[in-house]
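Contributing new records

If you add data, match the layout below exactly. Sequence lines come first and carry their own label; structure lines follow with theirs. Keep one chain per record. Anything else will be rejected by the validation script.
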Amino acid sequence: MSIRVAIVDDQALMRDGFGMILDAQPDIDVVGDAENGRLGVEVCLRTRPDVVLMDIRMPVLDGIEATRLITSSSDCDSKVLVLTTFDLDEYVYAAIRAGASGYMLKDTPAKELVAAVRIIAQGDALLSPSVTKRLIEEFANQAQPEAVTARLPDDLTDREREALELLAHGLSNREIAAEMFIGEATAKTHVSRLLTKLGVRDRVQAVVLAYETGLVRPGTSMKRDTVNRPETGS
């Protein structure tokens, strides 16, 4: 099945350029575009795209509020990939809190744009481990250290809390597997089940929740469990 994409950007050249790149792919179809957030929401409700490329700064309705409306709608299951001109733009964090599944720069090479759309369509967050660490650091600086605005599920196990904390510090599935002494496939399954239990769409939203619940505090380092680690020979 083809990946259905909508493009929301106030610059016609951007919409046309992204559209040409994506439409050239055999597994991607551009099903609509819009020049502002309000029209973008309408396009999404009408065409039901799998992925929305969303600009941030637009007239009428900006990309942050449009993202919030799209991701909170029960009539649309689209995932939002935020577009930004500036690396780690402060508006990106607001968009992620609004429900975006990731972000990318507008000058990203064409092949990376295509890969990004496929990643988001699969339900993954578009954040490499190195970018995740930077994003988390910047996101944490936006938050109030003592502000706890959400709660974790009461039935979350200690291992699930551990996995969430590792996730919130930007670790990949492979790194989580190493920290928890499990296989990478098992770590991926744990993370998938954790996202379901938390009721979030992807890893990015899990990171946000970890901070909002106070499980991870801005400026704190990752806890290292040295008690249960296997001893190494001398």
